[in-house]
Design goal:
Elements: H1 7-57
Transmembrane segments: 12-32
Protein name: Transmembrane protein
Organism: Solanum verrucosum
Amino acid sequence: MLVGGDLGFLSSLVVAAFMAVFGSVSSFMVRWKWRRSVARRDEIKRCESLKEEDEVFVETPASSATISTSYSGSFN
């Protein structure tokens, strides 16, 4: 079978360009996900430490336990 042109250099150039673009995008995605996971882990640690500190001082006032269920409207 006859081939119309040299596939060596052009195909190597296309593969190299694809690898450069794909490598850049994939490394960006991995770095972005890694930073988000570290930020989430830090947020969880921060919330847990605040939660432990707040549990000692949290008290529920007696007046907030009563709930009014009266309604003065009319239903049609």
